[in-house]
Amino acid sequence: MKLPELKIGRFTARIPIIQGGMSIRVSDSALAIPVAECGGVGTIGGSGIPVEELQEDIRKAKKATDGVIAVNIMYAMKDFYELVMGSIEAGVDIIITGAGFSRDIFKIGKKYNVPIVSIVSSPAFAKLAEKLGAAAIVVEATEAGGHLGTDKPLRELFPSIRKVVSKVPLIAAGGITNGFEMAEMMEKFGADGIQIASRFVLSKECSVSQAFKETFLRARKEDIVLVKSPVGMPGRAIKTPFIQKMEQGEDVKARECKFKCLKKCSFRYCINERLTKSYKGDVENGLVFSGANTWKMNEILSVREIFDMFVRQAESVYREGKINLNNA
Q1: What is the DSSP letter of 191?
Q2: CATH (one of 3.40.50.150, 3.20.20.70, 3.30.420.10, 1.10.3720.10) for 6-206+296-317
Q3: CB of 138 within 8 A of CB of 96?
Q4: pTM listed for this prediction
Q5: Domain-by-domain residue ranges, the chain?
Q6: Distance between CA atoms of 100 and 80, rounded to whole angstroms?
Q7: From which residue to which does the signal peptide run (predicted)?
Q8: What is the reported pLDDT for 324?
């Protein structure tokens, strides 16, 4: 059966897939444009880069597609509001935000008629986000890559949030690798759509280095580990020599803070520097964020091929009529 559309505020994605906004520069317009063209929500990672660079990338994406373009901005960023306002000025359709919680963002969204999507990992924050005016909510579980707000798996966390959110779309995120799992989350658990990130790293259009992609392809289940992030939240990444050094107690601190990008930073290491290294190809000294199920992926596909695979698989098993977990 045909998958439903995903409506977020005044925007409609033909395919209920949001491409996760991965920073730094992992999700840029080169990836967001084809995702939007395929009918999903193409998301630019807006954290850790200069406002002017982000604006230029948003304008590039908006000029290239009539599809939906979002930006993901971590609340933990020191220049969070500058990035938000810069994105609105550049014409972004939707703002997605997590890694902390902002109340003021909903007022800004309402003022400028820009839908706000909150990434949450607990029923309490989901309920608050809906109350404050979120246009949609992403439930991000422990299987996700990057910074994690919970240790609960998706199939345990999602139902608890589905029970308290009823007025806006609820999107499942964390560890989803194929269309069969997409259909499961939508049909069995009542998700209105899914957010996927790691699968899009292994796309032809993703701008990361070939070495970054090969690190994904070589990863075994046991290679994907939790790391301490200077942001103050645990993160999920592939074990690189850099992470091994940290585990062995070696000093990996940056000698100076070049970016001053975070509101709070433990200075354990410079996350901006380490993410940039892996993006450019120095995975030996870089940080490679990854979802828990990256080890299941074994090929690089085009964005179109990824969409076709997910839709074909999902529609082969999807049956309309969501479970009502509010009454479960």
Answers
A1: -
A2: 3.20.20.70
A3: yes
A4: 0.94
A5: 6-206+296-317, 210-295
A6: 11
A7: none
A8: 44
